[in-house]
Amino acid sequence: MQALLNSGKYKVMEVLHSDPSYDLCLCTDIMINTSDMVIINTYKDRKAINEYLPLYYAMNSDPIKDFRELLTEDGRISAVFRYHPGISFSDHYWEKKGSKPDYNESLDIAENLLLNALEFDLVDDRIAACAICEENITIDVAGRKIGMNLHIAPFVRPEEGFRGKRLGGMLRKMFPEDRYLPIEIRQFIRELCAGKYPTCTAVYSRWREVIVSSGQTRKEYEKETFMQYLFRRAKEKKQLRDQ
């Protein structure tokens, strides 16, 4: 792996992955006096180049917000994207971390996640699958915002309905079931994971509806006695069985 890319414009700070067909590097733009970093996906294999070059040409004319540029050099192509630092989604919502996520924090982060996902309805599934991917998402905890780092490995073949299903899987970690989790959010997550909402637009539209009613529901749950809670849960379980 070269220390400099694109005739010295980018300096490689860390090689995140390298194999005969593909490199993934974290780089700085030495032409700009800034601490911001970029991710560069470099395709070296002819088959990978033939498959991904048309996708990036299309992105050149109608780019997603983090796309910087497409480079061609020495028989390779490189796609440059903004890098988002932060704690990884998986680490922040690690299921065994010992304490439940803060509900209000999760509401803010979920809103930002679903908003950021919207533009990936407009790109090829092979690109979208690398963005809507838990391993590639970071969280700015202080700002309660997420970043999608575009690690676009070649030959990705996403599953059918992956957009809604993957978002549902992430929301499930953000909102673990407890006595105060509103039924609207609980049901929404189940529907997502079952593939009811195949697009990010459909997911976000339904999310906005859910948030309106779930706020009042949570207030009502917080006023319940324990016996009232047990009665409600028994009623909800019966309703689910009857569906």
Reconstruct the topology from this structure:
Blueprint: E1 4-5, E2 10-19, E3 22-29, E4 37-43, H1 46-61, E5 67-73, E6 76-82, E7 87-88, H2 89-92, H3 103-117, H4 125-131, E8 137-140, E9 145-148, H5 162-174, H6 183-193, H7 200-223, H8 226-242
Antiparallel strand pairs: 1-2, 2-3, 3-4, 4-6, 5-6, 7-8, 8-9
Word description of this protein:
This protein is an alpha+beta fold and 243 residues long. The protein contains 8 helices and 9 strands. Helices cover 44% and strands 21% of the residues. Strands 1-2-3-4-6-5 form a 6-stranded antiparallel beta sheet, with helices on one face. It is elongated. The relative contact order is 0.11.
Could you list some keywords that capture this structure?
single chain; 44% helix; alpha+beta; 243 residues; six-stranded antiparallel sheet; three-stranded antiparallel sheet; 21% strand
TL;DR?
The chain is α+β, with helices and mostly antiparallel strands and 243 residues long.
